[in-house]
Design a protein that fits this description.
alpha/beta; Rossmann fold; 5-stranded parallel β-sheet; 6 helices; about 20% strand
């Protein structure tokens, strides 16, 4: 069985993440979506909340497992019998960091390969941090995150009815 680890904070899960997972599952038999537990990082959602969100939002995609881990990614991948790390890249600005991480992971364990998928064009500007900031200031994040995530973010920011309606036309850009 070809298994890949798709690591990240997923704080919050975006439609860009889901795009990578849906395309990645065509390449692998199983994808383990693994939340990195980083106690030094301030998160909007707890690890348990993120596991619940991921489980609900990805329930219809066959071959996906949700988990969390701490420590070295290559050690976790080896424990899970995975042979690949799946990473999404939005722009050239992601390349340097991702390239360094891939080289370090390869140095630590040559048996685990890193596979990069370019983010779909409609998600190229989408990042978890930008979504959180826009939502914090009342921006419309619909269409960038699953409806459950939009609802949970609105609740976190004290706006349980959701974000204000966008003045943008329907569709991309």
């Amino acid at each position: 069985m070809k298994t890949a680890i798709y690591p990240g904070s997923f704080d919050p899960l975006t439609n860009g993440h889901i795009d990578i997972i849906k395309r990645g599952i065509k390449l692998f038999d199983k994808i383990i979506v693994a939340i990195l537990v980083n106690p030094a990082k301030q998160s909007l959602f707890s690890v348990d909340e993120r596991i619940d969100i991921l489980t609900e939002c990805l329930k219809d995609i066959q071959g996906v497992e949700i988990d969390s881990f701490g420590g070295l990614l290559v050690d976790y991948a080896q424990q899970k019998n995975a042979h690949a790390i799946l990473r999404g890249m939005r722009a050239v600005s992601d390349f340097e960091y991702e390239f360094q991480m891939a080289l370090m992971n390869r140095r630590l364990n040559r048996e685990i390969q890193t596979v990069f998928l370019m983010t779909g064009l409609r998600w190229i500007y989408t990042s978890s941090s930008i979504i959180k900031e826009a939502a914090y200031f009342g921006g419309d994040i619909s269409g960038m995150v699953p409806p459950l995530v939009e609802k949970r973010i609105a609740e976190k920011f004290g706006n349980p009815s959701g974000n204000r309606k966008s003045n943008q036309p329907e569709g991309d850009f």
